[in-house]
């Protein structure tokens, strides 16, 4: 658990982060959203002491981080940034081994861990371990960046706009990978982004920041249904609200009995995808398939009800 | 031009077109062919008699050399493949080197130990023209660093072979060498010690100063400005300025004289060369460290590297090619500058240059100048190759 308690950061008179209090539950993803200059990155960088707060406290699992030496704290927390920040003169394997080496792991243990992580991120160790970062594609570099952040199995992972430099297709893939890895390891993730779509897709909770203040911190459905301020509403985009709401739930949770013919949709798809398919194909309902079996239907009428503002 | 003419033009082979640099090389070579190939003098200080290409060699070798030169010019002039140009350039240079030695033996009367034969303006121009062809071809071929070093080694070996075979023994520069062989090697050692020693000390001191300037921003402008001012002091003036303080140190600090410190000699020369070396090394260290990707530094911090670990594992390795470029600049500069050390009794190849000027014996000047130029050139090639080898992964896109 990360407890941010009344944190303020000022730089020569300008308040960048203004009395923010926020608790991040263990094993969840908390996405901090805001425009540039909102103080979201500064807030995140105070968690691993890359920025020292002017006042206030941050506790990790109850321990005030002010008493932990910065380098020791940082070795316990994964850190992945936009533009990956890989060391250009070191191979992929050496990059991933950075923190294990700092922690003094023995060679065998480090090599095994590098192999395990590269495999996990679908980078064949035999092929990629000895390559230099510039020989990789943007998506591969980003995966190595996250693998490096996870090398010493940290409980907490901080990510600063990790997908900012990726094209939409690779970004969607990277987001799915992150969700899978979070479920596998139960890592607590704090991710900073300016993209509300990304926040709704990834976040268990979303913290919206503007001009240094924390405006709202809630579950995605709550933020969409009841934005705390006009700014939060604007960030969500009023015309996007019903679709964002639909994107939060899966078809599997809203299957109705009934037999319809035609091209089925997978039960794992989001309601938003089902809604788009209904509109596009001009059908009032779609068959739902799961493991190749038709298990029911999903109807336009039901989805329209679900897309309406929750009462 | 009619359509038929252009149609004809396109069927021409690719090599049948003028190469722009080739035209320049041909013009220089033409001037070189007209000017005297060798100079004959009855003794080492009288004015020489110019000997043209036709007079400097017996008729058959003379015709052969002219033929080789013509083929070389044609290959340079037309758009032949670059490798052909490189081969032609090296072949002509080799021919020039061999025939200048032959010319010296041919022009020197039998048994005459006072007569001197030295290369004439024509020889130097021809050498320059085809050296241009070779360097241009080498640049265009973009050889890997190790291959460039291998070519350098091969050239050195070829020159060593020519020296060892004795075919140049009749040349005036080697006659000057023959009478002062022990002094030549002694001054050579001094020259290397001055040039490499000053660069080594400047590296050991300059890199930490550069790191300090990078870490402590307020220090940067001050230190770099002071070093800039040092750099603008004329070299002879700096040598002179150091005489008084070093003489005082030698006279007043016990033990200073024993380690070789004195007002004149090698000590002030070394100090002056060291002072000139500092700016390029310090500023390149600062620039190199500044050019390290901020994302890499942020990642290093964020993963828990201490300041020292960051410096040695990330910042210095990434800045190293730029620092090495600074060392290369300084080494080539100091190999040249060390000739001036002779003025204040510091020794080095400059001794021959200044003796030669004093005696109006140009051959003696060459005995000092040629090895200096060769050393500087070799140092430049080797360090350029090292810079490229160390920038693995960091500079390429």
From TrEMBL, chain A:
Pfam families: ABC_tran. InterPro entries: AAA+_ATPase, ABC_transporter-like_ATP-bd, ABC_transporter-like_CS, P-loop_NTPase. One of its GO terms (molecular function) is ATP hydrolysis activity. SMART domains: AAA (SM00382). SUPFAM superfamilies: P-loop containing nucleoside triphosphate hydrolases. Keywords: ATP-binding, Nucleotide-binding, Transport. It comes from the Bacteria. GO terms for biological process: quaternary ammonium group transport. Residues 2-236 form the ABC transporter domain. Belongs to the ABC transporter superfamily. PANTHER family: OSMOPROTECTANT IMPORT ATP-BINDING PROTEIN OSMV. This is Amino acid ABC transporter ATP-binding protein. It comes from Devosia psychrophila.
From TrEMBL, chain B:
PROSITE patterns: ABC_TM1. InterPro entries: ABC_transp_perm/SBD (IPR051204), MetI-like (IPR000515), MetI-like_sf (IPR035906). Coiled coil: none annotated. The keyword Transport applies. GO terms for cellular component: plasma membrane. Residues 188-388 form the ABC transmembrane type-1 domain. It is found in: Cell membrane. It comes from Devosia psychrophila. Keywords: Membrane, Transmembrane, Transmembrane helix, Transport. This is ABC transporter permease. GO terms for biological process: glycine betaine transport; transmembrane transport. It holds the Pfam family BPD_transp_1. Belongs to the binding-protein-dependent transport system permease family. It is a multi-pass membrane protein. It comes from the Bacteria. The chain crosses the membrane at residues 21-40, 60-80, 87-107, 113-134, 146-164, 192-214, 226-247, 259-279, 311-331, 337-357, 364-387.
């Amino acid at each position: 658990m990360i407890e941010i308690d009344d944190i303020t950061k000022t730089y020569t008179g300008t308040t960048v982060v203004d009395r923010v209090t926020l608790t991040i539950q263990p094993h969840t993803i908390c996405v901090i959203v805001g425009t540039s200059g909102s103080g979201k990155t500064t807030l995140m960088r105070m968690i691993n002491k890359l920025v020292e707060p002017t006042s206030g406290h941050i506790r990790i699992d109850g321990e005030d981080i002010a008493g932990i030496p910065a380098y020791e704290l940082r070795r316990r927390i994964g850190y992945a940034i936009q533009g990956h920040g890989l060391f250009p003169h070191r191979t992929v394997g050496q990059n991933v081994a950075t923190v294990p080496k700092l922690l003094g792991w023995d060679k065998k243990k480090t090599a095994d861990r590098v192999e395990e992580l590269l495999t996990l991120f679908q980078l064949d160790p035999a092929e990629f371990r000895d390559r230099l970062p510039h020989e990789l594609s943007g998506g591969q570099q980003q995966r190595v960046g996250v693998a490096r952040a996870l090398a010493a199995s940290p409980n907490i992972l901080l990510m600063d706009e990790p997908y900012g430099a990726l094209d939409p297709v690779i970004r969607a893939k990277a987001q799915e990978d992150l969700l899978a890895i979070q479920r596998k390891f139960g890592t607590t993730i704090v991710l900073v982004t300016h993209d509300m779509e990304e926040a709704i897709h990834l976040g268990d909770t979303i913290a919206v920041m503007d001009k240094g203040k924390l405006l709202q911190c809630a579950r995605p459905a709550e933020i969409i249904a009841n934005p705390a301020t006009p700014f939060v509403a604007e960030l969500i985009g009023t015309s996007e609200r019903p679709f964002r709401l639909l994107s939060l739930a899966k078809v599997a949770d809203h299957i109705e009995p009934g037999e319809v013919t035609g091209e089925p949709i997978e039960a794992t798809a989001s309601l938003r995808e089902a809604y788009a398919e209904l509109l596009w194909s001009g059908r009032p309902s779609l068959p739902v398939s799961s493991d190749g079996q038709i298990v029911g239907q999903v109807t336009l009428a039901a989805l329209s009800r679900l897309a309406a503002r929750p009462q | 031009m009619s359509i038929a003419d252009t149609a004809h033009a396109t069927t021409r082979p690719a090599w049948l077109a003028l190469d722009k640099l080739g035209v320049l090389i041909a013009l220089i070579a033409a001037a070189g062919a007209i000017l005297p190939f060798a100079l004959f003098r009855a003794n080492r200080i009288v004015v020489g008699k110019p000997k043209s290409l036709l007079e400097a060699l017996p008729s058959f070798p003379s015709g052969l050399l002219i033929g080789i030169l013509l083929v070389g010019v044609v290959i340079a002039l037309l758009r032949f493949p670059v490798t052909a140009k490189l081969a032609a350039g090296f072949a002509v240079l080799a021919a020039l080197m061999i025939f200048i030695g032959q010319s010296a033996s041919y022009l020197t009367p039998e048994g005459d130990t006072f007569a001197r034969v030295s290369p004439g303006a024509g020889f130097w121009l021809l050498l320059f023209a085809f050296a241009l062809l070779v360097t241009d071809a080498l640049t265009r071929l973009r050889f890997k660093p190790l291959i460039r070093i291998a070519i350098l080694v091969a050239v050195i070996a070829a020159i060593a072979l020519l020296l060892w075979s004795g075919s140049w023994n009749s040349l005036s520069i080697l006659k000057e060498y023959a009478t002062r062989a022990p002094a030549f090697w002694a001054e050579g050692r001094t020259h290397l010690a001055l040039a490499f020693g000053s660069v080594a000390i400047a590296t050991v001191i300059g890199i930490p100063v550069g790191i300090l300037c990078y870490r402590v921003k307020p220090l940067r402008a001050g230190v770099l400005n002071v070093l800039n001012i040092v750099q603008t002091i004329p070299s002879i003036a700096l040598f002179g300025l150091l005489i008084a303080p070093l003489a005082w140190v030698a006279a007043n600090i016990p033990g200073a004289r024993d380690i070789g410190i004195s007002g004149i000699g090698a000590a002030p020369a070394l100090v002056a060369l060291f002072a000139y070396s500092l700016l390029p090394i310090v500023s390149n260290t600062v620039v190199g460290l500044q050019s390290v990707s901020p994302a890499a530094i942020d990642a290093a911090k964020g993963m828990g590297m201490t300041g020292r670990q960051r410096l040695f594992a990330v910042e210095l390795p990434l800045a190293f090619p730029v620092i090495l470029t600074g060392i290369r600049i300084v080494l080539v500069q100091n190999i040249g500058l060390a000739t001036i050390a002779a003025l204040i009794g510091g020794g080095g190849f400059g001794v021959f240059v200044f003796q030669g000027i004093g005696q109006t014996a140009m051959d003696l000047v060459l005995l000092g100048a040629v090895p200096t130029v060769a050393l500087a050139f070799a140092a430049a090639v080797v360090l350029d190759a090292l810079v490229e080898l160390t920038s693995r992964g960091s500079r390429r896109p």
